[in-house]
């Protein structure tokens, strides 16, 4: 506090002295030549007049706090002279008006003192005498050098420190901004192709984060502990032939990649009598002397709770992302207002690099094209006959899509049944035959969307966004049907069926990636060359957003289904998404072009997240939950061998806790009522759906209210225009007779 008061005093002294120098240099020529500017008035009259003015000004400013209101213990008095001479008028008749004027001036603030001195019709010497008495002049002159230097140092240090802090903060923000994944490629795609293609790559980036989370969780709690404590493996191990990279079988079966490798033992970290530490893998060991100091890690419990918590946290993240995306995309924003904002307020003047300026200009230009296309879009009113004709075309297109999907799904079911029954004598051919079903499914997923695009061409949608949404729904119908048949085919077919399902999911994920690469090569690159060289078309093919997004959702559904049977499948999905991003990015920039009709896709990211949550994650969660709660695990492999269900591992653990400590019986009862009974799960799911429904209704109500308010604002604007037009017409009517009268008078 004392330092603050001292700095304030030094600052006040500095400004006082600067003011004195400014007054000295601001005198006019008449003031410098004549000791009295007004020869008709005496010096005493002038001093008496301005003494009265200063007294009035002081009385008005008595309620204002000043720095001299601080106690003397807080700051020592430097002025000293004349500070205690503030007494009423006429109390000390011996003190001259001049001295009282000096005292009054010094009790005024700096601004009032300067204003009063400048208004006095006195010379510079007289103003100096009134401004500073001799003792104060000595004090100011003695402190001037120190205060000036001190204030200069304070100013320089504050400036340098603030600039350093600001520069470090900006550098830190720039560093954090540069850590964002794929920042510059996404800007290039947005500037060249618009928000539709950009939403695909943003969705791919979101899936990458989900798989990274799954990989970290399963790797830390499942893969790493089992890799440190490997189980006993058979002496004869299959050699590596290279085909395992495609099939996922062979030597990969005896690795941490699949469910069957994990043991049902309790991993112990025990201590010897001599204090040394060793790691053991014991299922039911009780022969250690330091049992109380032993740390155990039960793989069955770790497997059950790791998968359960991973799905639970993923569900929370998905719901939060979906709600946030709903709030951002379903706002009521008229295209006219957004167009004005983009035209006048979208440029960032901090961008100075040529590449960044070019990217920003392309991005703004593309967004303006999308907004203008939305503003200029006009709905065509069709007649009744045209509407019936369009309904017939839509019905025919949907019939073709549904019948073709049903035929393909039926073929997949019978072919999978045939493959499961046929056995080859050659083990190499038998292993290669495992790729037949994934190849067939991937081929159907590649070719059937072309038929869907042909049906969409028949329907001839006016809006590109509506066409995209219809294509998404048809591709989603295909993917869900195929996955349903495959899930029915996988469960309970072989002895160690969990590892078999994990291998199947690995093969499907790998074949999906290979056929995506083939589609990128033949469907985009070679077709672009063929149309340019042979067909002589200048236009390149457009990027199919719906099909590519559904391929991502299909692959992510496989990853979620396989994390129970293949804990390392998220790592394979991460590698696939990384390669797919760079391949698709290069293909889009080289082989594709922007759509003919620019359109703004404000809600597409929200629709992608919604499809990822409900058909994809919800379906995978139902399959995994049904497997853990209802299906009996394999007897010969896995951490749940010997149990009736995977869920029984948690039940036995709770019973063991209650047996060792009866006080934990409350936990056992809570587990029995909340987890074992399916009613709690149904109630929780119902509450979850009700919350989502109410949230959507609230958002929809807010949208309607905002839309009504905007309509009211538009109506008020129209009313103002109408009133202004009426006033102008009335004014013109009044002016017309006046003009006629003036013309008649002139005549």
Computed over alpha carbons, the radius of gyration is 42 Å
* Secondary-structure element order, N to C: HHHHHHHHHHEEEHHHHHHHHHHHHHH
Into which percentage range does the β-strand content fall?
A: under 5%
Largest sheet geometry: 3 strands, antiparallel
Helix content: over 70%
Count of individual beta strands: 3
Question: What are the low-pLDDT stretches, counting only 5+ consecutive residues below 50?
Answer: 1-40, 63-95, 134-144, 270-293
Q: Major sheet: order of its strands? A: 2-1-3
Distance between the termini: 87 Å
Mean pLDDT equals 75
Question: What is the global morphology?
Answer: extended
Subcellular location: Membrane
Keywords: Membrane, Transmembrane, Transmembrane helix
Main location: membrane
Family: Belongs to the TMC family.
In short:
With 747 residues, this protein is mostly helical. The chain has 24 helices and 3 strands. The chain crosses the membrane at residues 139-163, 198-224, 301-321, 396-415, 435-455, 476-493, 505-529, 549-568, 574-592, 604-629, 679-696.
């Amino acid at each position: 506090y004392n330092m603050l008061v001292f700095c304030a005093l030094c600052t006040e002294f500095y400004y006082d002295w600067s003011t004195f120098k400014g007054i000295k240099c601001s005198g006019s020529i008449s003031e410098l030549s004549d000791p009295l500017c007004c020869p008709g008035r005496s010096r005493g009259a002038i001093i008496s007049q301005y003494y009265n003015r200063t007294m009035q000004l002081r009385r008005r400013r008595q309620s204002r706090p000043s720095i001299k209101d601080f106690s003397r213990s807080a700051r020592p008095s430097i002025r000293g002279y004349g500070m205690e001479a503030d007494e009423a008028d006429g109390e000390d008749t011996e003190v001259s008006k001049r001295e009282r004027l000096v005292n009054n001036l010094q009790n005024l603030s700096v601004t009032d003192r300067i204003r009063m001195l400048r208004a006095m019709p006195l010379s510079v010497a007289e103003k100096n005498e009134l401004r500073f008495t001799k003792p104060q002049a000595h004090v100011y002159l003695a402190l001037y050098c120190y205060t000036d230097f001190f204030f200069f140092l304070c100013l320089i240090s504050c400036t340098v420190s603030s600039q350093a802090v600001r520069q470090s903060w900006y550098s830190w923000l720039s560093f954090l901004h540069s850590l964002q994944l794929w920042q510059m490629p996404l800007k290039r795609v947005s500037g060249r192709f618009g928000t539709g293609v950009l939403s695909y790559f943003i969705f791919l980036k979101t899936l990458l984060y989900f798989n990274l989370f799954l990989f970290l969780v399963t790797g830390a709690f499942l893969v790493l502990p089992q890799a440190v404590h490997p189980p006993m493996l058979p002496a004869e191990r299959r050699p590596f032939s290279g085909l395992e990279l495609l099939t996922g079988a062979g030597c990969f079966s005896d690795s941490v990649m699949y469910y069957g490798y994990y043991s049902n033992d309790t991993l112990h970290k025990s201590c010897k009598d001599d204090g040394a530490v060793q790691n053991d893998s014991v299922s039911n060991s009780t022969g250690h002397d330091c049992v109380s100091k032993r740390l155990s890690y039960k793989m069955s419990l770790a497997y059950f709770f790791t998968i359960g918590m991973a799905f639970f946290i993923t569900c929370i993240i998905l719901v939060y992302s979906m709600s946030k995306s709903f709030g951002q995309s379903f706002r009521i924003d008229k295209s006219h207002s957004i167009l004005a904002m983009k035209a006048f307020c979208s440029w960032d003047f901090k961008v100075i690099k040529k590449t960044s300026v070019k990217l920003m200009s392309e991005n703004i230009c593309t967004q303006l094209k999308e907004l203008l296309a939305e503003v200029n879009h006009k709905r065509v009113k069709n007649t009744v006959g045209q509407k019936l004709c369009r309904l017939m075309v839509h019905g025919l297109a949907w019939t073709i899509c549904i019948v073709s999907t049903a035929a393909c799904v039926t073929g997949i079911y019978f072919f999978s049944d045939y493959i499961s029954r046929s056995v080859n004598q050659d083990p190499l051919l038998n292993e290669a035959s495992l790729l037949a079903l994934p190849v067939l499914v991937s081929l159907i997923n590649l070719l059937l969307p072309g038929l869907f695009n042909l049906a969409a061409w028949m329907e001839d949608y006016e809006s590109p966004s509506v066409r995209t949404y219809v294509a998404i729904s048809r591709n989603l119908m295909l993917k869900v049907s195929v996955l349903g048949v495959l899930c029915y085919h996988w469960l309970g077919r072989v002895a160690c069926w969990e590892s078999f399902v994990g291998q199947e999911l690995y093969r499907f994920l790998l074949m999906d990636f290979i056929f995506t690469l083939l589609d990128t090569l033949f469907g985009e690159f070679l077709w672009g060359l063929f149309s340019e060289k042979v067909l002589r078309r200048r236009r390149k093919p457009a990027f199919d957003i719906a099909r590519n997004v559904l391929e991502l959702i299909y692959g992510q559904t496989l990853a979620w289904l396989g994390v129970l049977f293949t804990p390392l499948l998220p790592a394979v999905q991460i590698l696939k998404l990384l390669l797919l991003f760079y391949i698709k990015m290069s293909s889009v920039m080289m082989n594709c072009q922007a759509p003919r009709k620019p359109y703004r896709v404000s809600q597409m990211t929200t629709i992608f997240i919604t499809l990822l949550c409900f058909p994809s994650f919800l379906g995978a969660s139902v399959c995994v939950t049904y497997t853990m709660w209802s299906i009996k695990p394999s007897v010969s492999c896995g951490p749940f061998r010997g149990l009736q269900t995977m869920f029984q591992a948690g039940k036995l653990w709770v019973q063991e806790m209650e047996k060792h400590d009866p006080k934990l019986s409350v936990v056992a009862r809570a587990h029995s009522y909340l987890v074992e009974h399916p009613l709690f799960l149904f109630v929780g799911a119902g509450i979850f759906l009700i919350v989502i429904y109410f949230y959507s209704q609230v958002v929809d109500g807010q949208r309607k209210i905002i839309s009504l308010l905007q309509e009211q604002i538009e109506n008020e604007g129209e009313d103002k225009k109408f009133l202004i037009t009426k006033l102008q017409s009335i004014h013109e009517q009044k002016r017309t007779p006046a003009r006629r009268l003036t013309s008649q008078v002139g005549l």
